[in-house]
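pinned: reference chain
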Amino acid sequence: MAGLVLALSACQSSDLALQVTPPPLPNAYDGAPYKTSTARSNTSAWWEGFHDKTLSSLVSRAESMNLTVAMAHQSLTSARALANSAMSAYQLDASVSGMANAATGSRIKDDFTRRPVQLNLDASWEIPLFGQDKQAQKMADLSVAMATEDVAAAKVAVTAEIASNYVHLRALQKRRFDTAELVGLLENNTKIAGVKEQAGLATSIENEPMRAGLDTAKSTLLLLDSEVASTRQQIATLLGSSTPDPALFRYEPQPIAVAGMAEGKPADLLRARPDVLRAEYAVGQTAAQVGIAKADLYPKLRLNGTIGIGTPVSNSILGAFAGPSVQLPIFDYGRRKDAVAAREAEFRQSVLIYKQAVLVAYEEASRALHEVNAARARTAILRARLQRVSKLKASTDVLVREGLAEKSKSITGAIDLLELRSSLTESIENEARATIAFYKATRGVQPVATVDDVKRPTKAEGRK
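pinned: its structure tokens
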């Protein structure tokens, strides 16, 4: 029987994970611009491309303070601990046992296994003939690899979330500053309209739209204050704190996304994503489960032995016995076959999940590129329009100072300028957040910025 078991062990070999191939992807992303800057791989500090010290500080602190990242680290520690003993079930197992049986009389038992008083050293070893030990270790190692990618995924997600919220906060602060200025202009315009109404040069019906616009601007100001506070609190939560960072209360210019996105083959960039790597490791893990399920179809060989002492006895108090035992899957063979079929289905499902993860990653990167290009084009249009409107306002202000035009025209021009600046602020934010989404989709490939890209506006310029 032992010889038959050893012969069957040569029949078990399987590495289904080798059959997995990622879906084919284009050489360039859909939505990539025709002209792009040369890219360098920088998966650890892509946020430095915004050249914002406060943002860099927040991201650096989040790696050690964020609770989601901390939980992922604990899962990794647990997986490593379990991996250290993954093969313990297939190693020699020894134990000490004692037994005392109460009985009448003083009958002597020469069979030491039946003596009333015994102290035994028991040992057993299940011989992993069909590679169960290697498959178990492989599963444990892949669990560690998956937990490692969970840590990386948590860091990528938290970093992107902090950057996106920070960009949104600075845009809200900019809009809040402009809205407060708009309220002041509308109040002046309303006063002028009130004077005209008292002089009989305008009616209350004609001036009502101005008053309604002022009320709307004041309501917007209140909403912006609420959203600014909420965004600060969201960033604080990401830092594992209930108190927002004092730096977030200071006004800072909007972070500017650098021009030029990353080049490179999508398949190479996207395979570095933590979720894609995790899905790939999951394929290997389910393949190992198939191997273990198939090994259960064959007999198991176990060596057992006992060394003991016992009393009362007529001769030596020592005794020992040892021998092999074979477990044959006879009556539950059908159940084990079903288990193999189930594990193979899970393996095929994990392959599909892996391919889906690659396709979703490509779709996210391409969508982010479309959004980046659209926002960048809109930003360029709004900047050009802002320059034209600023020149027209300057000309109107000259006429007002010379007494050749009413002051209300200058105020109207300033209001138009503020509304245009609000649209530009939104477009700059959309471009930055789409850029963050692209970095998240590719796990952070940093484009090389030119001197013009790196230039940051001053606080005064940021408010214009």
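why pinned: DSSP finds eleven helices and six strands in the chain. The longest strand covers residues 300-311.
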